Amino acid sequence: MSDIKPEEISHPPMDQLQGFEYCIDSNPSWGEAIALGFQHYILALGTAVMIPTFLVPLMGGSDDDKVRVVQTLLFVGGINTLIQTLFGTRLPTIIGGSYAFLIPIISIIHDSSFSQIANDRERFLQTMRAIQGALIVSSSIQIILGYSQLWGICTRFFSPVGMVPVVSLVGFGLFYRGFPVVGRCVEIGVPMLILFVALSQYLKHLSVRRLPLLERFALLISIAILWLYAHILTVSGAYKYRPVKTQFNCRTDRANLISSAPWIKVPYPLQWGAPTFDAGHAFGMMAAVFVSLVESTGAYKAAARLASATPPPAHVLSRGIGWQGIGILLDGLFGTVSGSTVSVRTNMLKERGHRENVGLLGSTRVGSRRVIQISAGFMIFFSILGKFGALFASIPFTIFAAVYCILFGLVAAVGLSFLQFTNMNSMRNLFIVGVSIFLGLSIPEYFFSYTESANRGPAHTKTEWFNDYINTIFSSPATVALIVSVFLDNTLDFKDTARDRGMPWWVRFRTFKGDSRNEEFYTLPFNLNRFFPPS
């Protein structure tokens, strides 16, 4: 056998992922785009329903309150997604509710000034107004870091080696939201997992009129089949005598959303009353805003790659973070009970979300910005038409968890793909990547295990906002990975390692004019770059 040449076993690094039918600024036909947008909307429903379902009862709210919060979360999420795709990073990303805010929100809920209110309705309103006030104040963190370009300056310390653990743990950090949730209702979750893989991968070459129907719409087809199957099991009484937890994860009528939802309801600012402000609540919420910023940065890097675009320059990243801060401000004004992000991190309860839409870009091989904007339209439309939105929200969460097993894995793999620009024969790089990924998983796992056994986080001083800071930041895999990887990458054998770190490739994407393709992908619409030129 002849010797194999090195070029025969290696693949040249590529700035953009290949094989995409539509990239960020190319669009499918209107019919196909609408169907794909609806698919993204269905996927976004999981987090939009789960956050209010968990938090609203703790606040003393009724089923009617829960429905209104779900509608508000979807409505504001649709607005924020439109803003982000038009004026922010312009990447095809869904903006939605975030579990990153869960720890400080639960602290507010358990505040003695609210928990002692006897009337449930009054307790719900007072708690909601306090959460609104904390979100409004804490949103200033992202607004300031974004619009002042300070976050863009911070990104000068990032490199491909440092970003691999961060982007990877945007996906890997969600492993508890995958099969552990599928296992809560295996008769629905496992068939969904198998069917989705079969349609999106093994049967993806089957086309109808040159349209790869099964690959493009594997999610919609799989969900429709398993949703119908779950509904048949529900109405036939299969879960009638099963434990409450099983019914919650398997039944299609578990959340009482359809009966409680109004036909038409338009969310509006200050609908719960005037927000109240407390310095301790606001400081605690700022940690969640910072975690949201870090994880969104990783998600934007992944979204750019899965949209077949170049990495977003520092100016574009800062612009997106600034608009994301405006989004959290809107969350506070409308009362969504949570801040928003392009991704939802791991948290003490091990529930997460919204990176799934980033993964769906890769599964469908469609990274079109227009598709996401249409999805935002669906979010706004169905949040106003309450009954229709509640109907789709009756999909068992186990079905979403089966899809997450695939899509979060895709996002994690995109993070690993940045290794192609680095020297992985370098012990320095192996050390940084390995230690950052391991600690990024291990430290949040410690915080979760401690909280589960002690009913409080490892940080439990007399200062509540400080506890929220520590417990929130170190419960996020991506944030821990960023802290560890960026520190090691900028202090360990820093000199003369630029090529090993991948900096010759990375540096030209730092500035807007560093690569000619940036103008094509990230220029503002309506000729706004004349008034807001790239810095």
| Shape field | globular
How helix-rich are the residues, as a percent range?
55-70%
Radius of gyration: 23 Å
What fraction of residues sit in β-strands?
Answer: under 5%
Strand order of the largest sheet: 1-2
Layout of secondary structure:
Blueprint: H1 6-9, H2 30-59, H3 63-87, E1 96-97, H4 102-109, H5 112-115, H6 120-147, H7 150-154, H8 160-172, H9 179-182, H10 186-202, H11 213-216, H12 218-235, H13 244-250, H14 257-260, H15 279-306, H16 314-334, E2 340-341, H17 356-364, H18 369-384, H19 386-392, H20 397-416, H21 427-454, H22 464-473, H23 477-491, H24 498-501, H25 503-506, H26 517-522
Helix pairs in contact: 2-3, 2-18, 3-16, 3-18, 4-15, 4-22, 6-15, 6-16, 8-15, 8-20, 8-21, 8-23, 10-12, 10-20, 15-16, 15-17, 15-22, 17-20, 21-23
Using brief descriptors, characterize the structure shown.
535 residues; mainly alpha; two-stranded antiparallel sheet; 26 helices; NCS2; transmembrane helix; MetI-like_sf; Nucleobase-ascorbate transporter 2; transmembrane
Structural write-up:
With 535 residues, the protein is mainly α. The protein has one domain (30-346, 362-512). Helix content is 63%, strand content 1%. The protein is built from 26 helices and two strands. The chain has helices at residues 6-9, 30-59, 63-87, 102-109, 112-115, 120-147, 150-154, 160-172, 179-182, 186-202, 213-216, 218-235, 244-250, 257-260, 279-306, 314-334, 356-364, 369-384, 386-392, 397-416, 427-454, 464-473, 477-491, 498-501, 503-506, 517-522; strands at 96-97, 340-341. It has a two-stranded antiparallel ribbon. Helix 8 (160-172) runs antiparallel to helix 20 (397-416) and helix 10 (186-202) packs across helix 20. The longest helix is centred in the first third of the chain and has 30 residues, at 30-59. The chain is globular, with a radius of gyration of 23 Å. The N and C termini lie far apart (57 Å).
